[in-house]
Write a structure and sequence with these properties.
By secondary structure, this protein is α+β, with helices and mostly antiparallel strands. Strands 12, 13, 14, 15, 16, 17, 18, 19, 20, 21 and 22 form an eleven-stranded antiparallel beta sheet that branches.
Amino acid sequence: MAAALAAAGATAVTEWPVVRKLEAAGIEPAKVGGAGGSSRSAEHRRLTRCENAGMHVGAPDPVATADLDRLGMPLPEPELQARFDALQRKLVPQWELIEEFTDEPYGIVVVPSLSGVELPLDSTKRQAYEERYLFLLFLLRQPRAKLIYVTSQPIQPSVIDYYLGLLPGVVASHARRRLHLVSPHDGGPPPLSAKLLERPRLLDEIRLLAGDPDRAHLVPYNTTRLERDLALRLGIPMYGADPKFSVLGTKSGGRALFAEAGVPHPEGREGLRSVDAVLELVAARPGIESVVLKHDEGVSGYGNAVLDVRGLEEAERARVEQRLSDLRPEDAHSSPERFLERLADGGIVEELVVARELRSPSVQMRATPLGKIEQLSTHDQLLGGASGLSFLGSVFPASDEYARQIAHEALKVGEALAGRGVIGRFAVDFLTARTDGGWKPYAIELNLRKGGTTHPYLTLQFLTDGTYDAGRALFLTPTGEAKFFVSTDRLESEKYRVLQPDDVFDLAVRNGLHFDHTTKTGTVFHMMTTLGRHGLIGLTAVGDSREQAQSLFARTRDAFNREAREASSDQELPAVD
């Protein structure tokens, strides 16, 4: 079972693909732990293929692959990078248009491609994730903005009407004329960006809709070579981290950056290639009960697995390999064997932090094209799954008990990223452990992309015109009112499959849940595409207090349960004359 790791040879640390990439990003390889090397080149695999775990339940292999060599451009890599750098410099004069409410004309091309993201998604869920960022339609509040929103398959018209109906102070028909929905009509597994690069005529259409390339930019979900090449094909800059920095967003890169910035993080080893790293960690931390193994490219906890290491002090390699059969992957569709196969491409092992009370907050920041770091928000993450490591939702803002403390540590990471020239949104995930002296933070992940807390926060910001006050650890509207929310992508029940998006809008109005612009409270829904097939929907419940937001969330869930029961009740057959 452990052959993918145990068969690793004695490759020098500086020859590991992940270490070479860390060196290129400006991190010393000596800060990467672990042992052994890989018998195959993960670097070549990652550079020539872009994987997306687009998975139909029961399918034997969840990984769909786009061939970057086939999609690429006939130019040497240094020239492509130079062209991209020149495009990115256009973001500096555009920043005022991006950041501020303006009546200047400009174009926004949204491509929420799940490139490089490992999630067990079928075509319906993949479409829902692409629609998760429809809150960006709220940018159409700016009267001369044009927004081109691209999804693999067309979006239901009623869903578009719902978001446009939430726009405050805007005539919906006027906004609709400035919204352009584009789709390749391809629900297949490859990432959306790959589907676009395969279709030059569709790229021509998007380029034409975007207008003046000096007044347009690309907004991706994640940034890989696919998105870089998409920006080059469209001739517009991309608001996001240059893919050359992608290693910093891996689990190994994040740990190395935390060490460089002096941010506390769990004891562990990066650049994992063999079971020797597990032995090293157990020897360094005698008495620990469990460790977490993580894929470098894992998302939302799905690339994690917990291993019980009790009794492995001074154990032989063979005993550790045997224990690996007891791995508990967080992904219910995975197995210990499949998890270890993926881990052979890169990962980490770290101590599973234990305390009498643990919480999982995060800090969201952005690095502007001007090199400035801005703290945007803090959240307490709601976790679940097999080992309590899967992201289910968030509570905003994070507890006042530690919000400022984690923001202080996260700022060190942000400054290290900005110093390298990284731009765009990113987040640092923490564990906070209650001690006799207060809360102790541990940085555990760096996400160089949008995440599960991006869409609810920006929904709140766009609907209220408020901002997060980092000093007070509160979100305040322009009139000084504090706002809070509870959000999830996973309100889920098999019974909800009988509901349609129109049922959601109806129950929201009838039950007083719909977002009210007068009070700036209420529930906003997202990911409605997954209702019919999976009985799953996302929502953000906004209140004037933490308690009110939690109460509204519970009321919304109860309304769904009632509506599903009523919609499922048997009806008498119609009379036959």
